[in-house]
What we know:
15 strands; 157 residues
Amino acid sequence: xxxxxxxxxxxxxxxxxxxxxLMHNIHAVYKRGERMDYNNSIGFLDSCGxxxxxxxxxxxxxxxxxxxxxxxxMLNDCVASWSxxxxxxxxxxxxxxxxxxxxxxxxxxxxxxxxxxxxxxxAEGGKGIIQYxxxxxxxxxxxxxxxxxxxxxxxxx
Length: 157
């Protein structure tokens, strides 16, 4: 179990290579630097699936959460946020395969003037669900999340 950690100054905030982790309150922050490539930056990269992320916050990464191989993760009360005007492409959740995770109460705070995606799928299908996400639908340029949506998108502007 990992809890109450802040990670800063890396292209990949945290990479999980094993399953079965339960983690709480981990905050990864992307900071631009001369050796940093924004287009390859990932807040949380899960290479195997079957992990539980609770209260995570990915701040400023090109992709906030990336799940490889259609892994089954649980993301509860997680946040993805961007404030850098140079962050022209922003993705909250990306999968390399089908979407099989359970995402509840996920908040995406997209920046202005960017190309934004809430869910970027590597392959169509999967039985994952997204329950009560919080984001501004007018900023998102795809609707792949709709096939997995349970409830409605919530946004207070």
